[in-house]
């Protein structure tokens, strides 16, 4: 059974930090690179960061230098440390495999709101 459970979102002021967590089912986690995606209000879902099974990472330009993706293979968990948050980072954040299987399962996401 596929499971993706995101947590850690909330309301934060500009310049603040949050750490998101994603507990993934073993089948997805062990066989795939993992990624964080986000969907800003009224916009399409977009890729934020990728981490492969060996720990190599890639980031979208709009989060480089501010966000850090990591994974704990023993816990089947992926993290996203978000620093220097901006209002434009407001979105629902999701984790999933990379690349995503077309028509594949998505978790409920976690809402991040950056506002003063």
Gross geometry: globular
| Poorly predicted regions | none
By secondary-structure content and strand pairing, the structural class works out as mainly beta
How many helices does DSSP assign? Answer: 1
Percentage of residues assigned to helices:
under 10%
Order of helices and strands: EEEHEEEEEEE
Biggest sheet: strands side by side, in what order? 2-10-9-4-5-6
Task: For the record, give the distance between the C-alpha atoms at the N and C termini, rounded to a whole number.
Answer: 40 Å
Would you give an account of this structure?
This protein has 116 residues and is mainly β. 5% of the residues lie in helices and 47% in strands. It contains one helix and ten strands. It has a six-stranded mixed sheet. The longest helix is centred in the first third of the chain and has 6 residues, at 26-31. The protein is globular. The chain starts with a strand and ends with a strand.
Per-chain topology:
Blueprint: E1 4-7, E2 10-12, E3 18-24, H1 26-31, E4 33-39, E5 46-51, E6 57-59, E7 67-72, E8 77-82, E9 91-98, E10 110-114
Parallel strand pairs: 2-10
Antiparallel strand pairs: 1-3, 3-8, 4-5, 4-9, 5-6, 7-8, 9-10
Offer a quick outline of the entry.
With 116 residues, the protein is mainly beta. The protein has one helix spanning 26-31, and strands at 4-7, 10-12, 18-24, 33-39, 46-51, 57-59, 67-72, 77-82, 91-98, 110-114.
């Amino acid at each position: 059974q596929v499971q993706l459970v995101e947590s850690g979102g909330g309301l934060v002021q500009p310049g603040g930090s949050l750490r998101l967590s994603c507990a993934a089912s073993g089948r997805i986690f062990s066989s795939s690179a993992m990624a964080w995606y986000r969907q800003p209000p009224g916009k399409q879902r977009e890729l934020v960061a990728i981490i492969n099974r060996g720990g190599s990472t890639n980031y979208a330009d709009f989060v480089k230098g501010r966000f850090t993706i990591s994974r704990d293979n023993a816990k089947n968990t992926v993290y996203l440390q978000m620093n220097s948050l901006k209002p434009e980072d407001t979105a629902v954040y999701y984790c999933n495999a990379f690349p995503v299987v077309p028509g594949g399962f998505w978790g409920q996401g976690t809402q991040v709101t950056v506002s003063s």
